[in-house]
Amino acid sequence: MEYGVRSGYGDLKRVIMHRPGEELHKVTPGTLAEFNFDRPVDVEAFQTDYDAMLDIFHQHDVETLLLTEVLASDDDALGYIRHRPNMTYTRDLATVFKSGAVLMGPHLRGRWGDQAMLGRAFKKLGIPILGAIEQPDFLEGGGVIPIGEDTIAASICDRANENGTRALREIILGTDAQYFLDVPLPFGEIHIDGTFMVLDESSASSMSRPSRSSLPPLRGRQVRTPPHHVPGLPRRAWLHLHYLRRRRARRDVRQRHDHPPRQVRHRLRRRAPGQRRDRIPRHLDHDRLGRDAGPRQRRPALHDLSGAGGVVCSGWFVDYR
Questions:
Q1: Where are the beta strands (DSSP E) in 41-98?
Q2: CB of 241 within 8 A of CB of 215?
Q3: d(CA 70, CA 74)
Q4: The whole model's pTM is what?
Q5: Phi and psi torsions of 256, nearest 5°
Q6: Are 155 and 143 a contacting pair, CB within 8 Å?
Q7: Are 39 and 31 in contact (CB under 8 A)?
Q8: Backbone angles phi, psi at 172, to 5 degrees
């Protein structure tokens, strides 16, 4: 079977998907947090919407490889899938490059192990597995985007850490990609594909709608190409990636979930009655900053992140040219 994703745009030939089935009944009020759902699922409505999406693929002559059909002879895998309601979001579980696939490392505990089912399917389809992101390294397929035919962008976000992007870089850099971009996203962003997507060789789409006016002012100087510019990368696309880098860099460390805030306590000298207290400069009073930060120090609850996937996460490209 032909396979290989050479860029983030082109004519989609083949995609691997999973039509949701009885596993959706595993989403109950007691398992909402584990599986990252807001509420129990209307199974019939879910399947109806999914079938409509499959019909659209078929209308455009895209071959849909259904996971349960590929693994029809693997009873162990089918038994596992019947207990995993998030299997329908196959995009997050693996990424296919030019020469093979890399199994991702899902962040949510309720999805750990799901990527192994994609691995079994790839073996049956004859797609080489180049490597895997193993916990505690986290990276999901929605956090990986090809830019052009020689550049891969991977986001450091709520579902990925630097160890995950580093592991992917070591697997594909120099073989499937000549350039690799680590893109820190603002706190609260789940995947880069919810913020930025490449449309063709000269244009990209930004769902957060940044503009040049949202970039920090350059004090009258002309906008110049940011440092470390990748040759051939669309200028507007690179400006947006650079904008995301700078926006994340300006965030205080207390908002980064990978490194919980370090509470630095400044001790005040004892003072005699009537003696003026040594004041701490406002920008150095970490105790006050910690109090003011309030809920920003806490990670969002799992159910607050649900609903951000949907159609875009329901399939991963196998042959994209």
A1: 63-66, 94-96
A2: no
A3: 9
A4: 0.68
A5: -90, 125
A6: yes
A7: no
A8: -110, -20
